[in-house]
């Protein structure tokens, strides 16, 4: 009876060794990461179990709100001694190789202004910037100082998106694409219980650059730009509404954006009024369609005469499977960022231009010709 026990032990040991090989960088040294801001609730995704990671080491945090910092320190166990009042001090004291921004969208520019001249790479949470003006200044700083400037979206890490992209774009299995419908959102940040620190800027038209149009319109603009391989739209038409002015008096909570291309259009629906959480898209071609229902579930028909099929996608072609390992691998040079990648600066400059045009269209009540 000892052989099965020994075999089980060897299997468990092999599993642990495989995990160690996956988590440990080739150099054996984790990438030094700093955090700029703790007000964005997506920071929980980084802080959760960060001590178990071998690919990154959090060396410093810039956060002036010590109450917020202490709450998260108590929850996740980081040392308050690594928390500094401002980013400049933090990077000087801790020397990170990369900084992840979890501050307001408006403050993304200031993050890059501090990091780029010091040669520190930056990854911000979506979208890249509040305006094209900010985005262009960030691009200038990044290129002058030869740093990576990436934008992170939850949907970048959905395996089903890559299968749909393979079918519709790479293999053209549904024929020429003519329409894409992308839906994103939830009941609203207040309704789902976002933190006060997050809500303070998320519902501010300056600090967030808008409401649902920014928060969820950016997903559709990012994905459509990827599907079109960085081809810019010809026109942008948008309707922004505030369905719940008593909750969101300063920003829109309902956004519909229509993009046109020479032979296709996209309808992007971002909302803080969905009864359920949504991050789904459908790509339609002249012969068939493919729909991403969530991160793993796919539905498609390749032709009118064929039945609907469903598929659960678990494998992704990406070399990294989540944003922070991706950022570390990019910094290390193990992953090369293509200009058409979802996180790329090139894609996300187009995203910000689309959002600016959408806000202009809604404000002026007309279709806006996209500026090349």
Give a structural overview.
There is one protein chain. This protein is of the alpha/beta class. The protein has 12 helices and 15 strands. The strands form 2 sheets. It has a 9-stranded mixed beta sheet with strand order 14-13-12-11-7-10-9-8-15.
Question: Which tags fit this structure?
Answer:
alpha/beta; 9-stranded mixed β-sheet; disordered N terminus; globular; 372 residues; 12 helices; 6-stranded parallel β-sheet; 22% strand
Short description:
The chain has helices at 2-23, 44-47, 66-76, 87-94, 108-115, 132-144, 159-170, 196-202, 212-215, 217-227, 323-332, 345-364, and strands spanning 31-36, 56-62, 83-84, 98-101, 121-125, 149-152, 177-185, 235-241, 254-261, 264-271, 278-285, 289-292, 297-301, 309-312, 368-369.
Helix share bin: 25-40%
Structural class: alpha/beta
The pLDDT mean sits at: 93
State Rg: 22 Å
User: How many runs of DSSP E, i.e. beta strands?
Assistant: 15
Strand arrangement within the widest β-sheet reads 14-13-12-11-7-10-9-8-15
Outline: globular
Number of helices: 12
- Secondary-structure element string: HEHEHEHEHEHEHEHHHEEEEEEEHHE
First-residue to last-residue Cα separation: 73 Å
Q: Approximately how much beta-strand content do the residues carry?
A: 15-25%
Query: Residue ranges: pLDDT <50 for 5 or more in a row?
Result: 1-24
Question: How many strands, which pairing sense, and closed or not: the largest β-sheet?
Answer: 9 strands, mixed
Question: What is the secondary structure topology, with strand pairs?
Answer:
Blueprint: H1 2-23, E1 31-36, H2 44-47, E2 56-62, H3 66-76, E3 83-84, H4 87-94, E4 98-101, H5 108-115, E5 121-125, H6 132-144, E6 149-152, H7 159-170, E7 177-185, H8 196-202, H9 212-215, H10 217-227, E8 235-241, E9 254-261, E10 264-271, E11 278-285, E12 289-292, E13 297-301, E14 309-312, H11 323-332, H12 345-364, E15 368-369
Parallel strand pairs: 1-2, 1-4, 2-3, 4-5, 5-6, 7-10
Antiparallel strand pairs: 7-11, 8-9, 8-15, 9-10, 11-12, 12-13, 13-14
Helix pairs in contact: 5-6, 6-12, 10-12
